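Protein Entry — a single chain follows
Next Lines — sequence and tokenised fold
***
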Amino acid sequence: MPDARLVSSPALWGLHLAQGRRNELCNWLRANGLDPLSVLSTHDIVIEDASGSGWRIRCMVIEKDAVRPQERIVPLAVPPPRDWPVAP
């Protein structure tokens, strides 16, 4: 796996939806401790090497009643399926 991998972006999100992966993507986010309702599809979801502490997911979320989005970083517990379109 490269140092970073783009799992979703605004363009990839549309492709995930068009190819029927919405539920699969939401389940993957949940399996990694993220609430899919708070993850912003208008921003990138990136898997990256955390230099010695394993792989992690970085994305933007907006929590209920929050005023602005925040970056969220969580450990990668479940890798995305290999057949998902991703960008290096």
Notes: The chain has two helices and four strands. Residues 4-75 form one domain.
